[in-house]
Design goal:
By secondary structure, the protein is an alpha/beta fold. Helix content is about 45%, strand content about 15%. The protein has 14 helices and ten strands. The protein has a five-stranded parallel beta sheet, sandwiched between helices. A three-stranded antiparallel beta sheet has the order 1-2-3. A two-stranded antiparallel sheet has the order 9-10. Helix 8 packs across helix 10. The chain starts with 5 loop residues before the first helix and ends with a helix.
Length: about 325
């Protein structure tokens, strides 16, 4: 196990906090670079680290050092999302801007989101440590754009409460396209049923969803339930002026408008020449999770049309169920 000073690890994003080892009370770091951050589709088990070595830091030591540093709040922008809503494509666009340091679905936040009791001193210390670690940049001019995994939507309120310089873009897929994106794959159907049945009423945040038991729902109903849950979360967050809503079609059809709105919410300038360069980039014609595959707004429309023909009736069942639980 390599030895390195904890202050050196905390001073640069070159050391990425991959995950929390709760059993051993450690934070595990891996070596990264600007390129490997971009190359990592997500910052979980798919993280493209420079080496296979881990750097271990005791959680108690980490908490103590961060308290000693007294770090001031840093400007941060979070992209919360419903899944299957072009969030990775949006990140690819943002990665083209030199003022953006993009983190795609860091596992740390997902680990924290799955902890039920978020009021314990341990959880609060972990959240403080994670937000500090995920706010580090290579230059002072950069702002971190963190796209979170869908379970992390429940952390939105805490993100805003603990940092007055934080803002949120909530990226949402329309209900029907979300249902079709789930229903097209047996793996996604299993995922959404697990997601709803495991969390149950804790997901809800709305009276009409309180008594739902995921195992009693069809695939379409489970998907509709998850969409409603996240819509409820957005509705609660939207009371804060730092939260803005973006529909997934805007990312594919009007990315320039989306980028302008994000930078406006961060009080950052965005030159029109930068926007023109981004929207004309080949990123918009590539599949965001695998840039070797061609994919664009027209491809997405053709796919949704095909899925409508195959799963439209099933999706309509889910829509009807959702309307009865609004």
């Amino acid at each position: 196990m390599p030895c390195i000073d904890i202050y050196s690890i905390l001073s640069t994003p070159d050391y990425y906090p991959l995950k929390i080892d709760f059993r051993r009370q450690l934070m595990l770091f891996v070596r990264m670079s600007r390129d490997t951050y971009r190359e990592s589709v997500f910052l979980d088990h798919r993280t493209k680290a420079l080496t296979q070595e881990f750097y271990e830091v005791r959680l108690d030591d980490l908490f103590l050092v961060i308290r000693t540093l007294h770090p001031p709040p840093k400007r941060s922008h979070y992209i919360l999302q419903t899944t299957y809503c072009c969030s990775t494509l949006l990140c690819r666009y943002l990665e083209l801007l030199p003022t953006c340091f993009v983190l795609k679905e860091p596992l740390l936040l997902t680990q924290l989101a799955y902890i039920v009791d978020k009021s314990t001193p341990m959880w609060i210390n972990l959240f403080r440590a994670c937000t500090y670690l995920l706010a580090r940049t290579y230059t002072q001019q950069e702002i971190v754009m963190t796209k979170t995994h869908e379970p992390c939507n429940v952390l939105g309120k805490r993100m805003l409460e603990t940092n007055e310089l934080a803002a949120i873009t909530f990226l949402r897929a329309p209900l029907k396209s979300f249902l079709l994106s789930i229903l097209k794959s047996p793996e996604r159907r299993r995922w959404v049923r697990r997601r709803v049945s495991q969390e149950g009423a804790n997901l809800a945040g709305g009276a009409k969803l309180e008594d739902i038991v995921g195992i009693d729902l069809s695939d379409a109903q489970a998907a509709a339930c998850l969409w409603l849950v996240n819509n409820n979360i957005y509705s609660a967050l939207s009371e804060d002026s730092r939260v803005s809503l973006v529909e997934s079609e805007q990312v594919t059809k009007r990315p320039s408008d989306v980028l302008r709105n994000i930078f406006r919410s961060c009080n950052l300038p965005l030159e029109e020449s930068d926007i023109e360069s981004i929207v004309s980039h080949s990123i918009g014609q590539q599949y965001s999770k695998d840039l070797s595959k061609p994919y664009d707004a027209e491809s997405r429309l053709r796919e949704l049309t095909d899925l409508e023909g195959r799963f439209g009736d099933e999706a309509n069942e889910g829509i009807e169920w959702a309307h009865s639980h609004l």
